[in-house]
Amino acid sequence: MLSLFVYLGILLALPIVFVGYRKIEFALRVSRSKSYGDCTVQKPILIGVLQRWVKKQPLDVSFYHQLFLRHGRTFTTHPFMKPLVMTAHPENVKTILATKHGQFDIGHIREDLGQVYMRKGIFTTQASDWHSSRAFVRPAFNKMNYMGLEYLERHFQRLLQNIPADGLAFDLQPLLFAYTLNTISEMLFGVCVEDLGYDDADMQKFHEAEKCMRVKGLRAVHLSTLSNTAARLYRSSELIKSAKVFHQFVADMVSKSVERYQFLEKGARYSLLHDSMERTGDVQRARDEATNLLFAGRDTGAVLMSNVFFTLSRRPDLWTKLRAEVSQLNGNLPSYEDLKNMRYLNNIIKEANRLFPVVPFNYREALVDTTIPMGGGPNGTTPLFVAKGTYVMYCTYAMHRDTSVYGANALDFNPDRWDDPQLRPGWAYVPFNGGPRTCIGQNMAQTEMSYTIVRMLQNFDGIRSEDSAPFKPSTNFVMANVNGAKMSLYRKKLEL
C-alpha cells in the first residue's frame, strides 16, 4: 500500500516539477538575453506535437504550415525539456545558414545519431570535420559534373523497358526510385545495382531497410529537438537491423567497385570512390562519404521527378506546352547546353522545387547564445534571442508558400511565375539549402532531372492520371506523395 502512495505521489509531482523547470528555464533565458541588447525571449506556445505523437497522428508538413499561418512566421514552442524555435522567415533562414553559420550547426546529438547509422561523412559532421568532408568530396564532384550524359541514357533505357504498354495504369514513383538508385550508384561507386547480382528479394530487403532508416531516423531527429537524453536513448532494434542491411549493400558496392578499379583507364575513373582511390588511396574514407551521399541523394531526384509527373498527369496544358519546347530538339538527345536553354522545362523544375520541396524542413542547433533578426517584439519584427543548445526548425515548405513573396496564387502550380521579373524570392526560395552547406550535388541533380524529363517527353505523346486523390505529403525525410504517381502513358507513334 505504501508503494502505491509513493507512485501516486511521484505521478502527481511530475507535472509540478515539469512546470517549475520550464519557468526556471525561461527565466534563465530572459536573464541571458539582456546582454544582447534589444532582443526578445518568446514565451513558448502549445502546438500539440506531443499529443499527435502519442496518438500516432502524422506530423506532416501541412500540419506545420498551418501552425505558421496561425502563429506567424516565427514562434517558440516547448514540447518537452527544451525550447524549439520554428521559423519560416527568409531573414532568419539567411542568418542561420549564411550570416551566422558559424553559430549554428546540425547539432551534436544529430551528429552522433547520424554517425551511428550513416557513418562519418559530409551529412553527419559539423565544424572542422564537415569542412574536411567537403574538401574530400569536392574534387570528385567537379570531375563528375563533366562526365557526360551517356550514363544517364543507359539507365534511362532500363527505365523505359519497365514502363508498361500504352494505356495501362502503373505507379511511376517506384520505377524512378530504382532508376535513381542506379544512377547515383554509378556516380558514387562506378557500378550499378545490376552489377551486384541481387535478386528481387534482396532488393526488396534493401528498400525496406532504407525506408525504415528514413522513417525511424526522422523520429530520432525529432527527439533530438525535444530532449538530448531521449535522443541518445533512442535505439530502435529495427533501425539497427536496417542500418546493417544498408551498410552490407554499400560493402557489396565497394567490393565490386574496387575489383573493377584496376581494369579502368585513368581517365575513366570518374566515380567518387574511384577518384578518391586515385587521389588519396583511402578506400574507407571514400566509402563513408559515399554512404552519406547515397542515403541523402538517392531519393531526392526520384521524388522531385515523381512530383513533376504527378502534376503533368493532371495538367494537360503543362504537358502540351512542355512537349512543344522538347519537340524543338527534333528527336535528338539533349546536350548540356540544350538542357540549360530550355526555359519552360527549367521553370517547371523550379516550380516543383517550390511547391514540393524535397526536404520540407530542417534543423540547426545554436552553438552559442545568439539572436536571429525576426520574431521578437509584439509584431515579430525585432531580434529574437536564441539560447545555446536551442534548436531552430526552418520550414522550407511554408516559406515556399508565402503569399507575401509568391502572390495570392502561391498554392497554385504555375511555372510562368518564374518569367515575372518582379519575382525575386531571395532566401524565400532555398530548395538546395544555402550558405556554406549548400547542396554540393545540385548541378548534377538538376542535370539528371532535366535529362530524364526531356527523354520521357521524347518517348511519350500522352499522359493521364490514374489517381483522383490529392497530393498527400509523406512524413519521411523527403516529401514524396504517399500515394505515389499513378498514371498511364502513351508511346510516341512512329511516322511511316
Automatic annotation (TrEMBL):
Record GO terms (molecular function): heme binding; iron ion binding; monooxygenase activity; oxidoreductase activity, acting on paired donors, with incorporation or reduction of molecular oxygen
- Which family does the record assign? Belongs to the cytochrome P450 family.
Q: Which UniProt keywords apply?
A: Heme, Iron, Metal-binding, Monooxygenase, Oxidoreductase
**Which InterPro entries does the entry mention?**
Cyt_P450 (IPR001128), Cyt_P450_CS (IPR017972), Cyt_P450_E_CYP52_fungi (IPR047146), Cyt_P450_E_grp-I (IPR002401), Cyt_P450_sf (IPR036396)
This protein is called: Cytochrome P450
**PROSITE patterns xrefs:** CYTOCHROME_P450 (PS00086)
Q: Which cofactor does it need?
A: heme
Q: Where does heme bind?
A: C439
**Manganese found in the keyword field:** no
Write out the coiled-coil annotation as residue ranges: none
Question: Which species does the entry assign this protein to?
Answer: Polyplosphaeria fusca
